[in-house]
Design a protein that fits this description.
8 strands; three-stranded antiparallel beta sheet; alpha/beta; five-stranded parallel beta sheet; binds 2'-deoxycytidine-5'-monophosphate; 51% helix
Length: 228
Amino acid sequence: MAGIQVAIDGPASSGKSTVAKIIAHCFNYVYVDTGAMYRSVTLAALNRGIDLADQDALTRLAEQIKISFQPSADGQRVFIDGQEVTTEIRTPKVASQVSTVAAVSGVRQALVEAQRQLAKTGGVVMDGRDIGTTVLPTAPVKIFLVASAHERARRRYNENVAKGIPTAPLAELQKQIELRDQKDSTRKVSPLVQAADAIKVDTTKMSIEQVVVRISQLIEKKLKEIAE
Ligand code: DC
């Protein structure tokens, strides 16, 4: 049977990409990390010296560059016009500016269109903030992943330490996360909100494995319903 569209939305560091990657692998679906696309436009703008207040220039840039993905053993590699940017899009320089770029309506229009094209091929797991509400409103499975800000900060802190990335103290990370939540959920264009038909999964007290099992069960159930 052809695969279905699985939309996974939620706030920063709720575990979306970790879980989405594993699920895509299990079902042999394509994984699309839409946050990486907003990060890529931000990186390209910074590298080209584009003023982040110039919405028209940012929109033209989002329309022009080609962002592509390649699966790899340790996750997914990201490219802008064929040039690898996998690690560069994760630097604090990009992270601190991406909310501004993601709030530009023209940028969102261009990326939403590109995301819909990537989802055309069949089975897809797409993670982001507006997948269930805007990008793939008819996705048969919509998940809204949440976790307390404290738990998300703790995860990010441990991840930074494990990867040897210099990290701010836990309390500071929690503040940054709360600030990003606030920005993402109050912006005018496509704010972070749960789709009416999305299933909320609170991962605060769940392991990655437990979250994967829960979402996989929801996908299996939907596939069965569709087959009947
Ligand atoms: O998931 P992430 O941290 O890589 O997302 C980076 C930024 O992009 C974050 O500020 C939210 C924004 N974003 C968005 O507005 N819409 C999406 N579909 C995905 C991410």
